[in-house]
Structures are given as structure tokens and as C-alpha cells.
Amino acid sequence: xxxxxxxxxxxxxxxxxxxxxxxxxxxxxxxxxxxxxxxxxxxxxxxxxxxxxxxxxxxxxxxxxxxxxxxxxxxxxxxxxxxxxxxxxxxxxxxxxxxxxxxxxxxxxxxxxxxxxxxxxxxxxxxxxxxxxxxxxxxxxxxxxxxxxxxxxxxxxxxxxxxxxxxxxxxxxxxxxxxxxxxxxxxxxxxxxxxxxxxxxxxxxxxxxxxxxxxxxxxxxxxxxxxxxxxxxxxxxxxxxxxxxxxxxxxxxxxxxxxxxxxxxxxxxxxxxxxxxxxxxxxxxxxxxxxxxxxxxxxxxxxxxxxxxxxxxxxxxxxxxxxxxxxxxxxxxxxxxxxxxxxxxxxxxxxxxxxxxxxxxxxxxxxxxxxxxxxxxxxxxxxxxxxxxxxxxxxxxxxxxxxxxxxxxxxxxxxxxxxxxxxxxxxxxxxxxxxxxxxxxxxxxxxxxxxxxxxxxxxxxxxxxxxxxxxxxxxxxxxxxxxxxxxxxxxxxxxxxxxxxxxxxxxxxxxxxxxxxxxxxxxxxxxxxxxxxxxxxxxxxxxxxxxxxxxxxxxxxxxxxxxxxxxxxxxxxxxxxxxxxxxxxxxxxxxxxxxxxxxxxxxxxxxxxxxxxxxxxxxxxxxxxxxxxxxxxxxxxxxxxxxxxxxxxxxxxxxxxxxxxxxxxxxxxxxxxxxxxxxxxxxxxxxxxxxxxxxxxxxxxxxxxxxxxxxxxxxxxxxxxxxxxxxxxxxxxxx
Amino acid sequence: xxxxxxxxxxxxxxxxxxxxxxxxxxxxxxxxxxxxxxxxxxxxxxxxxxxxxxxxxxxxxxxxxxxxxxxxxxxxxxx
Lengths: 735, 79
Fold this sequence. Notes:
The complex is a heterodimer. Helices cover 65% and strands 7% of the residues of chain A. Chain A is α/β, with parallel strands linked by helices. Among the domains of chain A are: 2-164, Rossmann fold, CATH 3.40.50; 177-256, Helix Hairpins; 547-600, no CATH class. In chain A, the strands form 2 sheets. Chain A has a 7-stranded mixed beta sheet with strand order 2-3-4-1-5-6-8, sandwiched between helices. Chain A has a two-stranded antiparallel ribbon with strand order 7-9. Chain A is elongated, with a radius of gyration of 32 Å. Chain B has a single domain (2-76), classed as SH3 type barrels (Roll), CATH 2.30.30. By secondary structure, chain B is an alpha+beta fold. In chain B, strand 4 (53-57) and strand 5 form a beta hairpin. Chain B is globular, with a radius of gyration of 11 Å. Chains A and B meet through helix 3, helix 11, helix 17 and strand 10 of A and helix 1, strand 3 and strand 5 of B.
């Protein structure tokens, strides 16, 4: 027999810890189609039985209002698991049993895993488990998910319940006289017409009608609109009545009675507390310091800064290893394949692409490890608590601070992990606004470009300008978020109400599993797309290449140069030593110049070059000539590519992004460039389309529609800003 | 005994919820987190910028924005 178990429970009740305990590394993570709610499945064996465990998203309730709750509900009714394990935090019984109540209403075969009985004991809570079991009529197994205590008993109980194979029967909970009468009326109508009865127990459908549940109402209309209308009519009559007499909607009465039912059970001697309710626990004492008016924010900035340092300094080494590995690999190909398109594609397209994908892996790993620590320990909720007032002004959420910082809120981050970090936000609109605006921050790849232009045009005040541009990035990102929240992402804020869970030590196992999941998802999902786009960009910058006619011209120049030098000089150049004598060096320089002009000509003749040239009339209103345009197109691959592409376009050969001083000099002396153009270019580079790796991540975290939106919106905005800067600057002759 | 909204309760003040005067998503969310009439709550403190507020309810700590706290009427105990 193959058993299907679903794991459900409140957030912070220890559900993920239990899931990891039960399944170990035998997990499979995916996404539910179309939404970014994790679909986690794990496998285990117990007494020869094969068991599949599905980890449902942590929720407090099962309404139709959030993606997580809908997913849980749909999973239960569509997949019909053999048994549901409801994990309940024993130190927080009443709130946790609210969800349990809704499982009872749905009638699923249920086993309760009473978690953290050790914590409850420490908190002076004595539980009479036997009594609770009898009153709820559900098997209860005490466990400690962190240590694995009780997990065998739990599986035993789950298998036992599943084997009984009962039909789903809705629990009869009283919701007060008015509603009970209506319920009876609804149920008889539902039973008579077998209305949705193959999916839901009739009492459950009746309750959902009273709760005005959008999903069920819609399903009802599709199933049999005649009956649905009758049901809706009965409900609206009752609603009118409760509105008039009690000034409440039935759904509020139902919620109150659920809690009433829970309280009546808990107070029948199930729970005894030896301490006063307002007693301060260790967690509260920690909060006295960590959320203190003055110390709180200071500590928070320290913690966030440390996370940033941790992520970016620790990942520096592995990133450098990966870079040198791919550099080496490129070198091997360079030497072993004949010159030509295949070689160029493998080196620039494939190795560049794969290297680009893998280069982010250490970054993503370290960042998610850091975020997992903050999240699992409970500190992330406090960050949201402290920062919410500020971020709310811009239509965001307290939790938005983290993605902003990771993306470059402290200059030098990266928007790829930043976009992925928005997963910690549970409010859909706030999350979307955060995701779309974090690419405005100054990520590590924009820094070399900023350094090049600031170094060349504002050398006297480098640090100050760097700082100003970081502030500008924050300002623009936040204002853009506000703009989005009053236009296309308009809508009242998602309720902020959330739990500040007690501080806990994260388990290493949990941290590692969490980190691995995210990293693997990134490689798997983003990998293939990124490789494809990388090859496409290579093709844009390569084809159609130079005509034979031009090639002959460059070849003639080469021959002409060679003929001016003695055969000995040419021979000594071919030996290829590191240092040359005066004559030989002169020859090498000349040949280098010719090669550089040839690459420049090839680039200009490429598709990207032609596009850059064609756009020149338009982009000149921001002061950008065709060379800058090509570099900006190249920057879509990765912003630091702007430096090297500018180098090629100015016929300077390979320019190292880390050492762009010579290119800076060249720009400074170019008649097309001046301070105003530099600022316009800086603004454009900071705010135009995110690099395509970020775009792919946005697509994977939301949809391709939003990904394309971010390309267009950002580029349009950046261009307007650059034009404004250029036109105003030139008007006042600031250049 | 006096009824005020949670927004105006002071730190360490406690009381019993009288009514939740909001419907829709927010009302639902407040209720499912255990903020129902008859429940005892106490104010743990406020964020550094005085908003949101943190309260203790059903043995755990919840936080909500002041404009959300406004809908919760509480009968405060004299202190």
C-alpha cells in the first residue's frame, strides 16, 4: 500500500522541522503552477509501508483569500490524502486549534502532532493530552520536532487512522441558534440535490456559503446555478438578520464560535498554567533589547550589515574560483579549437553563459543561509516590525528592507538574490512592488561602470559622488515603488497583522535544507533560460560580421605593417616572449591597433551595432552616441560588460572592468563626452532594464508578463531621466 | 471600566476585547489570529517609530499597524 499523508499547520508551529525529520533528504520541491507557493513532497518508509508526505504551506486558516490557503484547500479536496497530520504548537494551543477546527469541519481523517511539549513544560503549561484527545475526538501524539521525539508514534497513529478509511464527515460545531437554523436549511437543500457532494461534505459547503467564500460560491454557480441561487438567497436573508440584530456578518459569528468551541475544550481541564499570563519569558526579555527604541534600530543595522558582509565577502572566494575555472576552460578551448564562429560561440556564448549562471551560486547560497538564520530564529519578523513604518509610506512592507539591502542598498549587492529574497514577503502586492524596484539599487556589477565614469569626470570627489549615487538609488527605488502602488499595483495594503514568534535557535539541518532548496531551484529553473539568452546576446554582438571587402582592407594593412619591419623582428615577435625589444614592441603595438580597429568595425557592423547606430538620433537627446548604445545593449547581459564593450567600441581592445583608467582617459578626451553626458549615462545605467539574469529571476518568481514590464518600465523611466539631465545640463552649459 | 480602541492603549495596559469593528479581509485576518470578543490582550510595546504595536494574545505576540488596531475595541482594566 502506498500512503499519502499531508502535513498542515500554523506558520511557526514547527511544520518544516517535522517535515525534514520525517523525510530527511528525500524531498522534492516544486512550485504550484502559476504561483510561487512551494510544493514540497518527501518520502519515507514505516514498517514496510511506502509513505509520501506533502508539506502544505503554513496557514492560520483556510479561507479563499491567500494563495497559500487556496493551495492547501485544493490539495486536500482534489488529492484526497489518506490522512492529514495537523501540527499544533502546544504552547499556543488556542490559536493553533483554530485551523484544526476547520479540518474537522472539512471532515478529513486527522491526526494531531502536539509539538514542542518541552517548550510548553518550560513555560509552566500542563496539558492533559488524553482529555484533549477525547474532547476533540482525534488521535493526538506528543512530539518534539527538533529532536525527532515521538515521530515513530506519530507515523504509527497516522497509518492507523488512514487504514480505517472513513468517509469524510463534517464535525458538528454549533455557531449559535440563528446560524444553526440556517445551516440545517442549507444542508437539507444541498443533500437533496447532491450539490457538490462528491467534493465537499454538505455541512462544509453550507458553512462556506455562510462565510461568503468566493471560491465555493463560484464553484456552486458552475455546478448548478439554480440551487446555488437558492442557497445564496437563504444566506443573504440570514446576513440581513444578523446585520440588523447584532451588527455583524455571519462569517464573524462563525469565527467567534470556533474560538468559543476551542476555549470550551481547553478550559475543561485540558490546559493548566502555573505562571501568570503576563509573565516575561526569555524571548520577551530578548525583545526588550532587540526592539528597544534606541538600541533596536542600531542592532538591526548592525545585523543587516553583517549579513551583507557575510554574503558578499564569503562568496568572494568561491566566485573568484569559478571565474578562474571558466577563464581556464576558455583558455583551453582557445588553444585547442581553430578560430571561427564555433569557438567564439563556445567561449563567449556558452562558457560566458554557464559561468554567468554558476557565478551567482555561491552568492545565492550564502545569502539564503544568512536569511534562513534570521528567519528561523524569529529575528526577521522583528526587522519587519521595526521597519514597517518607513516602508509603508512607499506602499511597501516592513519585510521589504531585506531584498533592498541585498540588491545593493549598501552599494555592491546583487539583484538576483534580492529578487529571490522577496519570498519572505507574504503580501502579494507589496511583494511585487518590491521585486520590481530592487533592480534600481546599485549592484556590484554597476560599481565598475560607476567607478569608470565617476573616476574620469569627477575624480576630485569620488567617494562623495559614489555615496550620492547610492542615496539616489534608494530614493528612486522607493518612489518608483510608491508610483507602482498607486498605479498598476494599486489597492489597499494587505493586512500587516503577523506573529512575532518566540526566538529559537535554528537547526543546522533546517538551514542546510533551506539553502540547498533555493540554490537548486535557481540552477534548475533559471539555468536553461539564461544559457539561451546568453547565446542570443553573443549572436547579436557577432553577426553578420565583416564583409570580405573590409577583411581584405585590414589584412592589407597588416601586410603593409609587416613589410616595414625586418624579418628578424617579425621572427622574434612570433617567439612570443613576455618582453620585447624596442623594434619588436613597435610592431606588436601596430598590429594590436589594427586588430582593435577590426574588432571595432566588426562590432559596429553587428546587429547590436546596427541597432545602436539606428537609435543614435533618438539617444542623442540624452547625449549617447552609437558606441554608448552598443555598450548599453551589451550591459543587458551583465552591467559590467558595459565597460568592456565601450572598450571595444572605442577600439581599445579588451578593457579589464577592474582597471578601466585608460578607457576613462579616452572618454574624457572624446568630444562626445563631458560631465553632463557622464551624469546622464550614470543615471541611465543605474535605472535601465535589469540584467537578463535578474529579468529571468523576476519571471520565475512572478510571470514573464512582469519580467517584460520591468524591462520596458525601467528603460523608459531611465531614458526620460537621462534626457532630462542631459537637456537641463546642456542648457545651463554645465558640461 | 472603560472602552477604548487598541490604538490608544498604552504600553503594559491590558483589557478584554469587546468588538472588532471591521469586515472583509482585515476583519477575517484579525479574527483568525485569535482577536475575538472576550479575548484578553495586553500591549507589549510599540516599534521605534511608535507604529506598529505589539500585543500579547493567547500566549503569543502579535503585531499590527495602528490603523488596523483602530478597529479593535477593548474594555481596559483600571490600573
